[in-house]
Input
Amino acid sequence: MTDADVVIIGGGHNGLVAASYLARAGRSVVVLEARGQLGGAVAGERTFPGVDARLSRFSYLVSLLPDKIISDLDLDLELRSRTVGSYTPVGDHGLLVERPEGDATRASFAEITGNEREYGAWQRFHADLERFASVVAPTLTEPLPQVGEIRRRVGDELMDALTARPIGDLVTDRFAHDVVRGTVLTDALIGTEADVHDQSLVQNRCFVYHVIGRGTGEWRVPVGGMGAVADALVGSASAAGAELITEVAVTELSREVDHWRAVTADGRSWQAPVVLANCARWTLDRLLGKATAKPAGNQIKINMVLQRLPTLRSGLDPKIAFAGTLHVHQSYRELRAAHQRAMSGQLPAPFPCEVYCHSLTDSSILGPELVKKGWHTLTLFGLHAPANLFDEPGRSIAVEWAVKASIKGFLAEPLYDCIATDANGDPCFELMTPLDIEAELGMPGGHIFHGDLSWPWRDDDQEAETPAERWGVATEHPGLLLCGSSSRRGGAVSGLGGHSAAMAVLDS
Ligand SMILES: Cc1cc2nc3c(=O)[nH]c(=O)nc-3n(C[C@H](O)[C@H](O)[C@H](O)COP(=O)(O)OP(=O)(O)OC[C@H]3O[C@@H](n4cnc5c(N)ncnc54)[C@H](O)[C@@H]3O)c2cc1C
Output
């Protein structure tokens, strides 16, 4: 006697995607979520007491979530384009990339680099990336393609450039300017601690996922914040009949003849022939009693609410500068130096980070009073801050100082003068290190992808006999499938881990 056709460990967004697909197909599904809230890193929260701002507390932008999943699951979701791609302060000037790119972008490249060539190189590079993305993106909702097929369609030259040698080599070949190189290379380092020239190519894999979403690599703003994505998925899964149970941490998983038994911290247990692990692979191993190497995250995240946007030394309107991704100390040389410092056990100085204002594109996350007062949200994501630099979860004064020092150079006034205060008179400022992320979400080591990313395809000689192998969600155990960021194509806010796991179950 079992309790459900499928038990899902974890109610992150991938777990919810799987639950919704399977329940719609008539399977009985139980989702067991450790936290009091569903969605995992896809979450919207009123973080600061008395401040009516629903922040995307963890993840904040969406690129990899395919339209197919949105329409299959009837998700009531709007993803809005930003009007600015990025802005990178350079001395008293800055490199502006509009969306779509126009005359101001061309002029900005010419001003910063002193020539027309670099923008031409930028356009050619992005045309290449779009060609690559247009081949790979449609395969993401299909069984894993073989690498040979991708290579045949992309062409040897581009395939080798992106997947056979370090991305740092390609970018330094294509671009001459330190800032332009860095602006491109940050996509290789978000959630991945590596040098851009690392021979392991772990940074290339990270880069690939950052540029293939929807065949364009565009990162869009979820209207209503990430909480709206979680709400849409919870609504879809519940409407389909999935049972979503919160505050139940699975502590043990064992195989019993023809089914799995998941035991929870409160002593209850659930049995099912199929179990999907939305938790990290490392967590799953622990539930099975197996010790494996723990992943380590490398980022800090800061959530803020501001009474006004700070002015910039460059004089650019902050409504333009903060509307896209504002790169701070992310030039090629600075990124390399920051990695070296992190490897020697020190916080980067200056701290490479990127800053972005959600409420400029979508003010619906703020209550009407705050909109009227001109308040804004601000997100800061800092790189090269590996988990081993921190002793324990909790406020890290050293990081706070490092970030302050890093951002003050491009602002015409202290950011801290712009930060709003909450009902207790405390600044609306929340800083999370990888250890805080682990404590909040159970992501091992605070690794935002549950571990290093894999290529979104399989080798030509890699066997794929079972549906789980074909969809990249197999474990070595029958009836136990990966269903989250640890699955082959699962990293980031994509729903792909959940989609692949559900398809593998339905194909069996
Ligand atoms: C700070 C931060 C910023 C990010 N920014 C972006 C971004 O802007 N865009 C983007 O695409 N990606 C971003 N990411 C990455 C992205 O959010 C994650 O890769 C993705 O959301 C993971 O989804 P998931 O469903 O696979 O896992 P998770 O979101 O980790 O959900 C797993 C769930 O399983 C639960 N769980 C774990 N163990 C157990 C257990 N034993 N029993 C029961 N439940 C358990 C957890 O509580 C959690 O709810 C960011 C991540 C972080 C942390």
Notes: The chain has a mean pLDDT of 97.
